[in-house]
Structures are given as structure tokens and as C-alpha cells.
Amino acid sequence: MCLGSPSERSTRPFRGRPPLRRDRVEGEEPQMRHLVWFIAAVVLLVPVAAMQITNEVRWDTADFVIFGGMLIAACLAFEATTALTNRARYRIAGGLAIVATFFVVWLELAVGIMGPG
To answer: Looking at the predicted structure, is the pLDDT value of residue 7 above 80?
Structure first.
């Protein structure tokens, strides 16, 4: 099958799969970035509120610094994921991987689920 000259190919109707569309809508990304950082700030404030309500939660400065560092690392990893891809599937998969890693590290630091015991 001969496709003809380049000018003929460009005028033919499209056949087959449609071209990939961009999943990102203009103006969507900054809102998502702000939302992720806002959620991280609220999550960091949860232990502060819990310390005011009950004596069961006792965090010192080092706990807040470590937890804050983990949140910053997770948010920066999510920003890197969103910067590397425009596809929603990859962003969701990356976000789930980041959240899972965050919780595994948090559990390890809290109770030592993987180390000898």
C-alpha cells in the first residue's frame, strides 16, 4: 500500500486510533499543588490538636521535625511525579506509591515493623 506524497497523506481522513489527548487542563495543576501542600499542613497539625485533647499523644520537637520532613519529601515526590507526566493514570499510580511508601516508613519509625525486635 502506497501512502503517496506527504501532502496527500496530510489531507486523508484519519483512520485507526485517535491521537492521544492531554489529560491536563489549563489551570488544573496549580490547584492540585496547593491542595497537596494544604493537606500536608493539616496532617502536620493533627498531632498538635491531639496533644491538646488527650495525654495519650506526646510528641516532642524531634517528632514534628521528622514527620514534617517526611511530609515535605512526599509532597516534593508528588510534584516531581506530576511534572514528569501528563497522564492521569501515571499520576494516580505515582501518588499511591508515594502514599504507600510514606506509611511504611512512618510505621517503621513508630513501631519497627521490619527490623529485629
So the answer is: no
Residue 51 near residue 17, CB atoms below 8 Å: no
Q: Which residue is listed with cell 519529601?
A: 73
Residue 105: band (very low, low, confident or very high) from pLDDT cuts 50, 70, 90 = very high
Sign of CA dihedral 80, 38, 67, 104: negative
- Percent of the chain whose predicted confidence (pLDDT) is above 90: 49
3-state secondary structure 42-60: HHHHHHHHHHHHCCCCCCC
**Structural contact between residues 83 and 75, judged by C-beta atoms closer than 8 angstroms:** no
Helix and strand numbers, DSSP H then E, in the chain: 4, 0
Domain ranges of the chain: 30-111
Tell me the three cell numbers of residue 25: 487542563
pLDDT at 99 over 60: yes
Q: Are 111 and 58 in contact (CB under 8 A)?
A: no
